Amino acid sequence: MLPGGLHGPYTPLLKYAADAAGDRAASIHPVWWRQYERPLTLAEHERSDWVSDHLAPELAAVAGSSVLLIGRSLASYGAGVAATHSIPAIWFNPVLNSATVVRALERTQAPVMLIGGTADPMWNPKIARRVADQVVEIPDADHSLRVPGALANTAAALATSITAVEDFMDATVWPHDAPDVATTRRATPMKAAHAPSSGPVSWCAFGDT
Question: What backbone phi and psi angles, to 5 degrees, belong to 112?
Fold first, then answer.
């Protein structure tokens, strides 16, 4: 898990996405920034290198495994790594007002899902639909996918997003590892241990810009 500029890997969207991966026998890998406040000071052209530098040793540690990148906001600067290594990815609230992120998404050959809200200034629905295989757009949701009004509205947005994540995993990423959710649903602990030599690996890249 790669945290972004403001929050770590235990926000609801990202925790449930990790649970979905864990239900499909994935090993969850949190990765923390070495200098947690540093991303807030990075210039646009430095962010991709920052994310890539943190991802490189972790990718080397799970070489040969089936990897899925799950990221939020700042983590979408890792789209270049996904493109280079043909890794499927799910990006929550991607930074689509960044030319760097958009160019990386344009050259990605592996499956990509983008999830964002219409009230997020970093979201661009036209670009999202052009560069991604699947797009989930939440009306009126902001950069945290929070929807105005009753909190039930935001909970519904969370449910919509995570259901789409599960469907994407089952249809595109790990089609043979879909669980019987009636009997295997569980809270999947997040751990920093290296993945086993075989089996899927969920790489969860979390956080805000």
Answer: -135, 135
